[in-house]
């Protein structure tokens, strides 16, 4: 075990031994197609994409407060035991020529000999087991074509509901939050890909990143795809045309932002609501505003006390991006996170890295994620060099600020 990896695991409260770290599904992933896994309480990991890795390693100082903390790289292997249980285990990354950042101090250590820790794919989906837990008639302003239905484990890969409600029993709601439908889908797809490739390749690089949801009891998460353009400069003509079509047919073209995923807790009914990207693409401007209202509404009232800190963060982010020369954040997302079931005690000092003076405000987080198609002039191998600021992303931010400001004004009427 690498001393650096061991120290990270200890800080994270992750059970460990010389064999590495057992990876589990990250249950608060609401958007994206890349599988995100839970490394520990405060750390997640996702498949390494060289461009995204380069972004995190060369992050401008002014952008650090608006992105997850980068924690390094691990090697992930896929295993299947005699009973068919699927295991993903993270190990320290052995040093490679030209990549001194990842040099492992214990690179010469022996391979693990003892039996692996594992989690079973047979125990993956308690959230999806009982159909009666899903409500079919709770959607505010829902349209007839919205597919609101429930799934058992075997149906999830074939079909995907766009809006789902899951009823939590009264009492300890925290312990009941298992897998949301989107994280389960991404996780199963990742396992299937790695299983199919296992004979040819069984070592994958994953990057370690800060788990932005770790400090919240019941994280409410909004994933917004930002910008008027989603395709990277290196996209094929087919990919480019597909991304342009998605933008034109959604709110991306008109306001520079569209809903990519949502998880929100409604305390009046004890329900978790999930909304995926397919629903988000269909939303009109009015539908998008309604979805934002739903995200900040707990079933009893609009959480208006969250709006001011969110707006402050968005304005700070806009100022930082306006100072970011040459960057383009194509296909990046914006996450907004808050606690759907905050402690009943007085607000504790914020442990977030948002700076002093916010200890008394509700704990919210606003961050940029997903940089697989990011570019700037410092990436020497890129054929296209952009000038100025990312106007598409900033356009989306400005419209988001306007819409949330309108929510704030109406909440005080």
From TrEMBL:
InterPro entries: IPK, IPK_sf. Its EC number is 2.7.-.-. Signal peptide: none annotated. Residues 96-153, 341-362 are annotated as: Disordered. The keyword Nucleotide-binding applies. This is Kinase. It comes from Poecilia reticulata. Transmembrane segments: none annotated. One of its GO terms (molecular function) is inositol hexakisphosphate kinase activity.
């Amino acid at each position: 075990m690498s001393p650096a990896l061991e120290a990270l695991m200890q800080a994270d409260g992750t059970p460990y031994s010389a064999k590495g770290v057992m990876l589990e599904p990250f249950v608060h992933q609401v958007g994206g197609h890349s599988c995100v896994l839970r490394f520990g309480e405060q750390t997640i990991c996702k498949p390494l994409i060289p461009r995204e890795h380069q972004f995190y390693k060369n992050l401008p100082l002014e952008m650090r407060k608006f992105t997850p903390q980068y924690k390094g790289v691990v090697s992930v292997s896929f295993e299947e035991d005699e009973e068919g249980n699927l295991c993903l285990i993270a190990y320290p990354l052995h040093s490679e020529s030209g990549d001194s950042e990842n040099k492992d101090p214990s690179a010469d250590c022996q391979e693990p000999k003892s039996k692996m820790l594992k989690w079973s794919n047979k125990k993956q989906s308690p959230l999806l087991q009982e159909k009666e837990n899903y409500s079919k008639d709770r959607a505010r302003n829902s349209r007839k074509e919205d597919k609101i239905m429930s799934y058992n484990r075997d149906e999830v890969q074939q079909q995907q509901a766009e809006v789902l409600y899951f009823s939590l029993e009264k009492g300890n709601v925290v312990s009941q939050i298992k897998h949301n439908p989107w994280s389960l889908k991404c996780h199963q797809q990742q396992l299937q890909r790695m299983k199919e490739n296992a004979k040819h390749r069984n070592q994958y690089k994953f990057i370690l990143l800060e788990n932005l949801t770790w400090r919240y009891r019941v994280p409410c998460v909004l994933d917004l795809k930002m910008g008027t353009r989603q395709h990277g400069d290196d996209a094929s003509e087919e990919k480019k045309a597909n991304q342009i079509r998605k933008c034109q047919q959604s709110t991306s073209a008109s306001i520079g932002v569209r809903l990519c995923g949502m998880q929100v807790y409604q305390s009046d009914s004890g329900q978790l609501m999930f909304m995926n990207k397919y629903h988000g693409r269909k939303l009109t401007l009015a539908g998008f505003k309604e979805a934002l209202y739903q995200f900040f509404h707990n079933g009893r009232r609009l959480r208006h006390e969250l709006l001011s800190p969110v707006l402050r963060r968005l304005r700070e982010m806009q100022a930082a991006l306006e100072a970011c020369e040459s960057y383009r954040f194509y296909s990046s997302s914006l996450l907004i996170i808050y606690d759907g079931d905050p402690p009943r005690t007085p607000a504790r000092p914020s442990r977030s890295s948002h700076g002093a003076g916010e200890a008394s405000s509700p704990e919210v987080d606003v961050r940029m994620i997903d940089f697989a198609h990011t570019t700037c002039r410092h990436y020497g191998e890129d054929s296209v060099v952009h000038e100025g600021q990312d106007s598409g992303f900033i356009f989306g931010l400005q419209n988001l600020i306007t819409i949330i400001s309108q929510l704030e004004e109406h909440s005080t009427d």
